[in-house]
Amino acid sequence: MNALVPLPVLLPLCATGLSLAFGTRLARFQRFISVAVLSAVLGLAVALMVAADRQGPLHVDLGDFPPPLGITLVADRLSGLMLTVSSAVTLAVLVYSLGQGMADRDQETPVAVFHPAYLILVAGVSCTFLAGDLVNLFVAFEIMLVASFVLLTLGGTGPRIRAGSTYVIISLFSSMLFLTAIAMTYAAAGTVNFAQLAGQLPELPLGVQTLIQAMLLTVFGIKAAVFPVAAWLPDSYPTAPAPVTAVFAGLLTKVGVYCMLRTETLLFPGNRLGDLLMAVALFSMVVGILGAVAQTDLKRLFSFTLISHIGYMIFGIGLATREAYGGAIFYVVHHITVQTTLFLVAGLIERRGGTNELTRIGGLAKAAPVLAVLFFVPAMNLAGIPPLSGFIGKLGLMRAGVADGGAWAWILVAGATLTSLLTLYVMAKVWNLAFWRAEPPDQAAYGTVLESADDSDDADSDTGPDRIPGSGDEGVLGAPAPAGQAVAASLHGRAVTTTTRPPGAMTAATVAAVALGLAFTVLAGPLTAFTDRSAAELIDRGPYTEAVLGR
């Protein structure tokens, strides 16, 4: 089974070359390659997860060079679970994007680049979860950064370029800080291999350990978008196409959380910075959800809820008990699926109503009952309504906080309860505005061709006899969009037509994502047991180091 460990990274990278070679000349074959490879990665992830659970951590030294010279990839229970969930989510998002691209007849160059960039992103995410040393982890981050910039700026529209530039600047800063932390670690310990560092870092002076720990937490905190380094996220994600935003929100922030879990348990046991982490968790929860309360743009609203609920995971890491780690792992798995699903639903709402601005849409519960159900289920799941998986994850974290009994733990329990109630309020607000109330008079008529923001900026703003402000005709091709209205955009950022029935692939992918979230509820018992075993393995550290070092 050890030979399977590198394949979740190698398969997408090899498929990227094939996808680039065929491009738009054989578009169907390009789509087939992407779907087939991600399906294979999902199967491999499940096999690795099961094998790691039964046999213990699996590892491979690439080139047969032992640590610290070689590149080590390790698959234990945690990385296997993260690989499985991320593979399932990326496959669903790919199917969604195929439906959107084919419906919009996206045959231009940016869409030919979408599949290679997406496969590279998947390879980077897989490499992050399997990385056995800090340098390989840094390389995985850079792979994700390159692919992320391409996906964020698909179509080259002004808003996407600006958002992508912000994302790249923040990511480059965190990369420089990461490199500095790696250099300090190597200078102090003589290695960057996780298993070797687990034995050598405790021998270093306490000040050196704390400095390295703080630098790594800062890097991973930027990736996870925790307070106070989360301001970039609401400005970067909403401008991207719905499938890109969905996979970014669902996965890329959890990469940072995963790295925190891995390093805090394997490299820095003892919870020296636990109070700091719990303070960060509290402010992430409260500031994030208050930001969501103030939003009327659906994608920005979901972006702020994303920041808020990252706080639950940091809460578990800050408590640093087996129960807390288990609850945090469960909540990460739950949140990957639910947050991705909500952004996919946002894309369907945009296609149905022509905008994500909640003040300009309504009546969707009557007009699109399937869409209403697809929103309602993950919304209630995110809010933590019993007996859904969101409730189970929050309950596990709160029980761990009560069992801890410390002042910070009780404050976090109260903050988590308040955040959950405000999340319910935010989801009810979206439901009332977009679904329950009557359709507003200025909602775009179905079949209207809406432009990208860049196209509308350059269009003639004069109002002619066939462009009556407030009539819903402002989005007709060649006319500017109404002021303040976010217009729908296809994958390549050009025009898109609103429809009463979205493409079947988009709906099917969203249904699959909703079903996956519900499966975590149905299988909550086995999943909770698995996350508890994962938490115990993280705290023990012995199985990981023995698998890598052979002693």
UniProtKB/TrEMBL annotation:
<feature type="transmembrane region" description="Helical">
    <location>
        <begin position="137"/>
        <end position="155"/>
    </location>
</feature>
<feature type="transmembrane region" description="Helical">
    <location>
        <begin position="32"/>
        <end position="52"/>
    </location>
</feature>
<feature type="transmembrane region" description="Helical">
    <location>
        <begin position="6"/>
        <end position="23"/>
    </location>
</feature>
<feature type="transmembrane region" description="Helical">
    <location>
        <begin position="408"/>
        <end position="428"/>
    </location>
</feature>
<dbReference type="InterPro" id="IPR003918">
    <property type="entry name" value="NADH_UbQ_OxRdtase"/>
</dbReference>
<feature type="transmembrane region" description="Helical">
    <location>
        <begin position="301"/>
        <end position="322"/>
    </location>
</feature>
<feature type="region of interest" description="Disordered">
    <location>
        <begin position="451"/>
        <end position="476"/>
    </location>
</feature>
<keyword id="KW-0472">Membrane</keyword>
<feature type="transmembrane region" description="Helical">
    <location>
        <begin position="370"/>
        <end position="388"/>
    </location>
</feature>
<comment type="similarity">
    <text>Belongs to the CPA3 antiporters (TC 2.A.63) subunit D family.</text>
</comment>
<feature type="transmembrane region" description="Helical">
    <location>
        <begin position="504"/>
        <end position="524"/>
    </location>
</feature>
<keyword id="KW-1003">Cell membrane</keyword>
<feature type="transmembrane region" description="Helical">
    <location>
        <begin position="78"/>
        <end position="99"/>
    </location>
</feature>
<feature type="transmembrane region" description="Helical">
    <location>
        <begin position="273"/>
        <end position="294"/>
    </location>
</feature>
<feature type="transmembrane region" description="Helical">
    <location>
        <begin position="328"/>
        <end position="349"/>
    </location>
</feature>
<feature type="transmembrane region" description="Helical">
    <location>
        <begin position="210"/>
        <end position="233"/>
    </location>
</feature>
<feature type="domain" description="NADH:quinone oxidoreductase/Mrp antiporter transmembrane">
    <location>
        <begin position="131"/>
        <end position="418"/>
    </location>
</feature>
<dbReference type="InterPro" id="IPR001750">
    <property type="entry name" value="ND/Mrp_TM"/>
</dbReference>
<feature type="transmembrane region" description="Helical">
    <location>
        <begin position="111"/>
        <end position="131"/>
    </location>
</feature>
<feature type="transmembrane region" description="Helical">
    <location>
        <begin position="240"/>
        <end position="261"/>
    </location>
</feature>
<feature type="compositionally biased region" description="Acidic residues">
    <location>
        <begin position="452"/>
        <end position="463"/>
    </location>
</feature>
<dbReference type="Pfam" id="PF00361">
    <property type="entry name" value="Proton_antipo_M"/>
</dbReference>
<keyword id="KW-1133">Transmembrane helix</keyword>
<dbReference type="InterPro" id="IPR050586">
    <property type="entry name" value="CPA3_Na-H_Antiporter_D"/>
</dbReference>
<keyword id="KW-0812">Transmembrane</keyword>
<protein>
    <submittedName>
        <fullName>Na+/H+ antiporter subunit D</fullName>
    </submittedName>
</protein>
<feature type="transmembrane region" description="Helical">
    <location>
        <begin position="167"/>
        <end position="190"/>
    </location>
</feature>
